[in-house]
Design brief:
This protein is α/β, with parallel strands linked by helices. The protein has one domain: Vaccinia Virus protein VP39 (Rossmann fold, 3-Layer(aba) Sandwich), CATH 3.40.50. It is 45% helix and 21% strand. It contains ten helices and seven strands. α6 links the parallel β4 and β5. α7 packs antiparallel against α10. It is globular. The structure holds S-adenosylmethionine. S-adenosylmethionine binds next to loops.
């Protein structure tokens, strides 16, 4: 795995930093929101699945392992792709989960190529109208598009908002439940369903639930052995703690009309 210089670690966004220290589940609702999403995806062994912004490949691996389905996993970041490919290989699933570079704003796939299209915590980082349109475009008629996004569960204090959107995730934008539903409806999807829950990925409880005790200990070990990791964690965690009480996840699921 590529070893980053201290300066590069300092500049990583929180999600890439989580990948570097070995976290596997890197989206606001953790495994709980992935389960909420998969319950609405109705995947079987013959379902053609696309996971856009796949991160380190955790959901793609889970789908292939659980259902034996073919899952194309794409991400824009070389750092994520390297880890996703390694994790897919370690799981012995390279024959079912091709990992390749791809941009949610300009996917290389033909229209209607997939039965299920997933984007967990990706649309909110980019031009959301274009991203939602691309996800819908590559879904087959009757196919499902499923996304996980952030939203404010309760109005944040100005301080919490500034810390999260100004310091922790600059450039990130997110909306209300209604705005997310409107976005995916405008992309041409119908029968929109949503499920919401708290942002627990970075709480002790959520971290343990998502990664398990052994992996948590491994992550703590990887943080402890590099001063650059310790500094990054020491910067990140108090800021996350200020924003967490106001943050939630929303899973949005829609169908491409036939
Ligand atoms: C919050 S992480 C989520 C990763 C993964 N989906 C998960 O849930 O663990 C956001 C991911 O989106 C990827 N990403 C950001 N912009 C993207 C784009 N334009 N096209 C594809 N992936 C993108 C990032 O590299 C990162 O892996």
């Amino acid at each position: 795995m590529t070893k980053l210089a201290s300066r590069e670690i300092e500049q990583l966004d929180p999600y890439k930093f989580m990948a570097v220290i070995g976290k596997r589940v890197i989206h606001p609702g953790g495994r709980a929101s992935t389960e909420a999403l998969l319950r609405r995806a109705a995947i079987t062994a013959s379902t053609r699945v696309l996971d856009v912004g796949c991160g380190v490949g955790t959901t793609a691996v889970e789908i292939a392992r659980r259902h034996g389905a073919h899952v194309t996993a794409v991400d824009i970041a070389p750092l994520m792709l390297e880890r996703a490919a390694a994790n897919v290989g370690d799981a012995g699933l390279a024959h079912l989960v091709p990992v390749e570079p791809g941009d949610i704003l300009d996917l290389r796939f033909d229209d209607a190529s997939f039965d299920v299209v997933i984007a967990e915590a990706v649309t909110m980082f980019v031009d959301r109208t274009r991203a939602a349109a691309e996800l819908a475009r590559v879904a087959a008629p009757g196919g499902r598009v499923l996304a996980t996004e952030f939203f404010w569960r309760r109005p944040p204090t100005p301080e919490a908002k500034e810390i999260f959107l100004g310091q922790v995730c600059p450039g990130l934008e997110f909306d209300t439940i209604e705005d997310w539903v409107r976005l995916y409806e405008s992309a041409g999807l119908s029968a929109l369903e949503t499920e919401t829950g708290p942002f627990e990925m970075m709480t002790t409880k959520g971290f343990l639930a998502d990664e398990g005790l052994a992996r948590c200990l491994g992550i703590m070990g990887r943080v402890a052995v590099r001063p650059a990791h310790v500094r990054k964690m020491a910067w990140l965690m108090p800021r996350m703690a200020r924003a967490v009480p106001y943050l939630g996840y929303i899973v949005v699921a829609g169908t491409k009309p036939k």
